[in-house]
Specification:
Helix content: 25-40%
Shape: rod-shaped
Number of helices: 6
Strand order of the largest sheet: 2-1-5-8
Largest sheet: 4 strands, parallel
Distance between the termini: 146 Å
Strand content: 5-15%
Order of helices and strands: EHEHEEHEEEHEHH
Number of strands: 8
Bound molecules: iron/sulfur cluster
Oligomer: single chain
Radius of gyration: 60 Å
């Protein structure tokens, strides 16, 4: 895991000039992404805790009573750069406004609570050796960005796992769902003839008259001339009322006799 240097007071160490800390609630979450290396340049420079406040004026650092403490501040800065070089640290999160750790702003050097643009002694030294230095607010923004990127990465990993599991799982045949379909029941054939094939006693020809005869039905005459004429009129002859053959068709057979009174 990558190491980063962090102001010890941000991690909760009681090393400020008042003997307190500047603990930032989010720094513990940074542990998930980095190995945190706490460092207090003023303590490492040999200054006691608590101590009199100091401010940068020009290229030196003074206490309110005018005491020059530049040497201790330079020593702290030197130790910070040595640690970063030794551990290969390329990123630091430092406490804003401090004469050692300030990143963008420091007090103006006159002890009147006025902040000016500038950087602390240690921050300046770290930047000189190429270490990227963030203040506590920028550190928080970095953490939020890391969390966002991690969430995206986790989601992608989860999707990849699901896709792999789906590939590995045996494929189920899709069931044909036809809830509207109800097959009709198959009824046995009840016709008089078989629709196909032959069976004993069945000729296979469509001769329904003969079939009926075999069963004892009365055979129906095929021509009207086969039975005696029973029509009206004065014809008294026997047999057919009209002669057979094309030549005599329409002529009465036999002789017409006048009716007797
Ligand atoms: Fe915190 Fe830096 Fe001041 Fe030490 S020197 S107390 S680490 S701001």
């Amino acid at each position: 895991m990558e190491k980063i240097l962090i102001s010890a007071c941000l991690l909760g160490e009681k090393c400020t000039y008042k003997g307190g800390d500047n603990k930032a609630s989010y720094v513990e979450e940074l542990n998930q992404y980095f190995d945190l290396v706490p460092f207090c340049p003023e303590v490492e420079g040999g200054l006691p805790t608590p101590r009199a406040p100091s401010e940068i004026r020009g290229s030196s650092v003074y206490r309110e009573d005018g005491t020059d403490v530049t040497k201790a501040f330079n020593l702290g800065a030197y130790k910070a750069t040595s640690i970063c070089s030794f551990l290969g640290i390329r990123l630091a999160i430092m406490k804003e406004n401090s004469p050692s750790c300030g990143v963008h702003k420091v007090h103006n050097g006159y002890f009147n609570d006025v902040l000016v643009s500038g950087e602390g002694m240690t921050t300046r030294a770290l930047k000189k050796i190429g270490v990227q230095v963030l203040n506590e607010e920028e550190g928080l923004a970095m953490l939020e960005e890391l969390k966002k990127q991690n969430a995206i990465k986790d989601e992608k990993t989860e999707r990849a796992k699901e896709a792999e599991a789906a590939k590995a799982a045996p494929k189920e045949e899709p069931k044909e769902e036809r809830p509207h379909f109800k097959p009709r029941p198959i009824r046995p054939y009840q016709g008089k003839t078989r629709p196909f094939g032959k069976k004993e006693g069945f000729s296979g020809k469509r001769n329904y008259g003969e079939k009926r005869d075999e069963e004892g039905d009365e055979k129906k005459p095929r021509f009207h001339g086969d039975k005696p004429f029973e029509g009206k009129g004065n014809f008294k002859g026997k047999g057919k009322p009209f002669a057979k053959g094309a030549k005599n068709r329409g002529k009465p057979r036999g002789r017409l006799k006048p009716d007797k009174d």
